[in-house]
Amino acid sequence: MRGERLHVWTDGDHVGEFMRTSGGHVSFHYDSKEGAPISLSLPRTGKSSGKAASAFLENLLPDDENARRRMASRLHLDSTDTFKLLADADTVGGLVFSDKPELPHHPIEAKPLDEEEIGNQIGYVRANGYNWFARDDEDEFYERDTPKCRFSIAGGQPKFTLARRAGVWLWPNASIPSTHIIKPEMRDCPGSHRVEDAALTLGTLCGLPVSEHGILTANGAEAFITRRFDRIVDGNNVRRIHCEDLAQAMGMDPESKYEIGAASCVRFLHHFDPSDETGYEWVRRLAFNVSSGDSDSHGKNYSIVLAENGFRFAPMYDMTVTRIWPHVDQEMAMPINGVEFAELLTPFDWEAFAEEAGLDGERVAHIARTMAGAVLDHLDEASAGLPDSLRESMRKAVSKANENIQPLHRRMSKPKANTASFSGGGVWVSPHIRSGYEVSGYWRSR
């Protein structure tokens, strides 16, 4: 029996198709061996792990099952089936999906969203975290057989995405690429939208590339807003740029994002760049997230942009100071040398981590200490626009995170180009548990 298929397109060209058997196994098949892969976990030639194709798709959807149910309801679907939710949707990266062998097409004409509607959507998402997908049940597009609004965005934090075209806001779909992501304040983390804005500003001041960001105010409602780095806007034309997060690249499903270790990330990158310059650049980003008090910096918070012959790091995103809110887990998502709390980290721990990862310990410790110094030096400037109480909470959280790192207060050296080439041979085996023991990620010959 012919299995279910989900066709994949990039820049209007058919790339291949995901296939699902009656038993539920998902695989991906390319039309050609030439060109960039859609994922490092799904190479054009050679093998991929058995779950890589399914994991790649799952990482494009919200983590929250309630958010997926909301999507299905708004699309008049009878289930939260992954193939159905992604078909015809605007998704992260440069791919478009269709359950038919024709490129999805939706009318470009769409009713612009006014300030009141955007303000209402901010309020809906803040009040009811799973309501990412639309306005209320009486809105205009809900009554259509084919809703104009059709997007999917990954992660656990409530958010939504919009398209900016010809000076107006539109709901996105497969034919209308979104250009911005909007994150309302989280109810249990007061001021989260402003803290994220300040954290990205801090990253910029520390010499890191970050996504363009700010605070959106609509009809009296506030939210964090960021311009998508996986879109290029040229006048009224928007082009999707293909990227993926490290969970996708390593073939990990979203439920396993906290199982991705720092040393595994470095070893994974080493396979594509034996010089390890890409690995050192990633360490700079990791060091910033540690020193800025972001305990939730997991594998899906780092992305790469794929091109014909290799990849580079995407700008940083999803940066915040989680240590501000005591009820949020204080342990780092990626422990360093087994140390789970940032304030306990010493230069020795960074050196030991480097040795485990195959990097130079002295260089890695210098990166971590210099980044800590930069974070502390620029903290007041980055947080200047926050309300007094929030600014003080951010200052305390960041200062605590750097208690034992022995910061170096000096100008940071300019990083080398962070590009890597695709290399052939082998299959990446993701970190896993075997016979009750943790096994780090490693490359296995075909």
Automatic annotation (TrEMBL):
An example molecular function term from Gene Ontology annotations: protein serine/threonine kinase activity
Residue span, HipA N-terminal subdomain domain: 6-88
Keyword set includes Transport: no
Every HipA-like C-terminal domain range: 151-377
InterPro entries: HipA-like_C (IPR012893), HipA_N1 (IPR017508), HipA_Ser/Thr_kinase (IPR052028)
CC terms in the record's Gene Ontology section: cytosol
Top enzyme class: transferase
Transmembrane segments: none
Keywords: Kinase, Transferase
Enzyme Commission code(s) on record: 2.7.11.1
Similarity annotation: Belongs to the HipA Ser/Thr kinase family.
Name used for this protein in its record: Serine/threonine-protein kinase HipA
Source organism: Bifidobacterium longum subsp. infantis
Gene: hipA
